[in-house]
Design brief:
By secondary structure, the chain is an alpha/beta fold. The chain has a domain at about 90-155. The protein is about 35% helix and about 25% strand. The protein has helices at about 40-45, 70-80, 95-100, 110-125, 140-150, 170-185, 195-200, and strands at about 1-10, 15-25, 30-35, 55-60, 65, 80-85, 160, 190-195, 205-210, 215. It has a six-stranded mixed β-sheet with strand order 6-7-8-3-9-10, with helices on both faces. A four-stranded antiparallel β-sheet has the order 2-1-4-5, covered by helices on one side. A hairpin with a 2-residue loop joins strand 4 (about 55-60) and strand 5. Helix 4 packs across helix 5. It binds adenosine-5'-triphosphate and magnesium ion. Magnesium ion (MG) binds near residues 40, 41, 162 and 193. The site of adenosine-5'-triphosphate has 10 residues, from helix 1.
Length: about 220
């Protein structure tokens, strides 16, 4: 499903990723681990097509996403990938349900279909009970679940999470883990960059990829 071959990424003179080769199969849950600055977020951004590698191949479903046109790239980002990051980029003044529906607005769906997808995503992310609440008044854990709902609304096959539990207390981390378990059971491919042993020690994790100074150990 996801295959990286000889991927390099440099910013000016610094090489951040070096000769990354990895394969993640459909339905797998994979943890990216490594110290701060090792290149985890950069790797996730490359898989999510937020960033292009300096060289190398990034194949998703047999297609090299590095060579996609801008139009197809944005389509790939919105339909194939659900990104859960620490900087939420939610519309703070809008309600949960308004935030969750935004990725669907440019799709050619009927209103009924949109509302159905929105509600399904809020159910999966366990935030339906807050659907009318304005985001600025949510707790940190609730904001994160709002973002998860928004990431799921297009039913992407791949979910990328960058340090998803870094700012959560134990109870919210466990809620997040419960959601991840359900996503895995529904066949999603999941890549999580994390230092959190609560996640890396989960039984559902198929493999842990260790990154050290931009290289896979
Ligand atoms: N846009 C950029 N310009 C220059 N350097 C960058 C840029 N983005 C990332 N880097 C550098 O690349 C390296 C890897 O960064 P990255 O964010 O991928 O690390 P990380 O493993 O996610 O770290 P953390 O655990 O702290 O989130 C760092 O040294 C960082 O300073
Ligand atoms: Mg990071």
């Amino acid at each position: 499903m996801i295959k990286l071959k000889n991927v390099y990424k440099s910013f000016k003179n610094t090489t951040v990723l070096q000769d990354i080769n990895l394969e993640i199969k459909e339905g797998e849950a994979v943890v990216l681990s490594g110290v701060s600055g090792s290149g985890k977020s950069t790797l996730l951004s490359i898989i999510g097509a937020i960033m292009k590698p300096s060289s190398g191949l990034v194949e998703v479903n047999g297609e090299n996403i590095v060579s996609l046109s801008d139009f197809h790239l944005s389509e790939y980002r919105t339909s194939a990938i659900g990104f859960v990051t620490q900087s939420f980029h939610l519309f703070e003044m809008l309600s949960v349900k308004e935030n969750v529906i935004t990725p669907l607005i440019l799709n050619k769906l009927t209103q009924k279909e949109m509302l159905h997808k929105r509600d399904e995503a809020m159910i999966k992310a366990e935030i339906l009970h807050k659907s009318n609440q304005v985001v600025s008044t949510l707790s940190g854990g609730e904001k994160q679940r709002c973002m998860i709902a928004r990431a799921l609304v297009n039913n992407p096959k791949i979910i990328l999470c960058d340090e998803p539990t870094a700012n959560l207390d134990k109870q919210n981390s466990l809620k997040f883990i419960k959601i991840v378990k359900q996503l895995k059971e529904s066949g999603k491919t999941i890549v999580i960059a994390t230092h959190d042993p609560l996640i890396s020690e989960l039984e559902l994790v198929d493999k842990i990829i260790k990154i050290d100074e931009g290289k896979i150990e």
